[in-house]
Enolase (Candidimonas nitroreducens), 426 residues
Amino acid sequence: RILFLVAQEILDSRGYPTVEVCAGLRDGTVASAAVPSGASTGRYEAVECRDGDPNRYEGRGVLDAVANVNDTIAPALAGMAADDQAGVDAALIELDGTEYKQRLGANAILGVSLACARAAAQSHNLGLYRYLGGGEARVLPVPMFNVLNGGAHAPGGSDIQEFKLIPVGASSFSQALRFGVETYHCLYRVLQDAGLPTTVGDEGGFAPTLKSNAESLELILRAIERAGYRPGEQIAIGLDPAASGMLKDGRYLLKRDGLSLSSDEMTDYWEDWVASYPIISLEDPLADDDWDGFRNLTARLKDRVQVIGDDLFVTNRKFLQRGIDSGACTSVLIKPNQIGTITETQQTIRLAQQARYTCLMSHRSGETCDTSIADLAVAMDCRQIKAGAPARGERVAKYNRLLRIERELGEKAMYAGRSAFPHLSG
Ligand code: PGA
Ligand code: ZN
């Protein structure tokens, strides 16, 4: 049973405030969880509570969210069973009472939801993945390593926010991690040899200023080969253009290429790339209000690439259902803080799995060393996860957690590999 809940303001990886919640149970268990924060956020994400006080952290303080936990949520949840996750989350949703959690803040609510789950898992002496997923949870997700950053995460870099390595050909998670790290280090040398800077963006990927967007792909292919891997077969490529951020007056603006494209032309552009490079995953290739564009693009490309809705679906069942009904995307990005509770995250994943959409568990560009998403990916059988480059503490925390889960599962562990991408096997 919940004895206390205490929140405090801590910093995320960009140096902005975020919420950490500590949950204490009557049996003496104490556990905490911290909440991440995005930069290229979707329009209909659950709302973060920020103070707006210009004299503190540019208005980005979270003292109000902290107070909402300490003064409103804590007294309401005191005495509840921490291991009744559905009950805890239902109480949080009811207490907030708004569709997008703007009263108490999704940062306050998710912090409590996660801290309760952590405390309950600990009190049952189980890893979080095992507590939430049961004895069946044993599939390690395919990691996507964001090795070149652009867009809102590295202004001045590529127009495309994320270029990711996908080690589909590895035989275990630990081997997949090694494939990714070795290639990341080779990319460092490829950039150095080309006289390009090796400074990094928000998610730990390199962020050089290049002459064209396609040059990023050429550099990555060179790095994969230099590391001794076969592009496509062992390491494929995934993109997140986060295209809402490229939209200006109804046209997609690609500054590096000097292009201004309609939705159809933008789709032609991606089709051309998918035909020319070993790209197997494409996230938010169009803007989050371009539902018709998404439907067309999905119909044209779905046999060759996984089409993921991130800003389009915002981990919300309602928008995912609209996608399923209209044929938009074949995959959904899962960011717990876009929706605000573990239970709702599970519901979205379940809906996706029923509709044969794939699920990609995801961090945010502003992170902490909290590793919950690693456990959630295994517990909910997501089969894919992205947590940034295989470098920087807040990114590798998730990958290291997956290494530990894989070791703990021992013989039982299974690496999702190519099976995570149904379109690859037709
Ligand atoms: P964000 O970006 O965390 O800044 O929203 C991640 C993404 O777009 O996938
Ligand atoms: Zn995205």
Q: What stands out?
A: The radius of gyration is 21 Å. The mean pLDDT is 98. Residues 295 and 326 are 7 Å apart (CA to CA). The chain is about 40% helix and 20% strand.
